[in-house]
Specification:
Radius of gyration: 17 Å
Number of strands: 5
CATH architecture: 2-Layer Sandwich
Number of helices: 5
Order of helices and strands: EEEHEHEHHH
Structural class: alpha/beta
Distance between the termini: 34 Å
Number of domains: 1
Shape: globular
Length: about 170
Amino acid sequence: MKVLGLDVSSRSTGWFVTKRSCGIIAPGKDLEFPAKLSFFRQELAKLLEKYKPDVVVLEDCYYRPGFGSIHTVKSLSKFAGVAIELCNSYKIKVEIITATRARKYCCGKEKLDKRGVFDFFVGKFELVDWKFEKDNDKTDAMALSWGYREIYKEEAKSNNKKKSAKKGSKK
């Protein structure tokens, strides 16, 4: 299963398919908001065509007092909407998970912040040339992708156990 993780942002969307296939979608700062959405859509379409993922995983966006503003959530939801619509046009499944859930499954800890996720992946993959200021959106996308894979594996195991239990009760 090929997974594309997207840490959606209006300034710097991190994306991850593999350690060597990851990057940033960064619309110009001088672009008006609608032009940023168009730029994001065009760049995401290139990624979907190049990597042909089975699943695109997006970080759920929601408002929490003290963590950004409602305006940020509204902006992020518009970018996520563009991604969902585009994936649908390519017939690609979209999964939306919280950063907390992804971090728990990929890093083993729910309480890691952006810096903790960055340090985890830099250490795990020996990404010695990566810098937090430049690459943290990529590691957040890694966490979403990796976390989704782990969640998927766990759910598949659980479903297999349920099927086995049903078969055993029918005998």
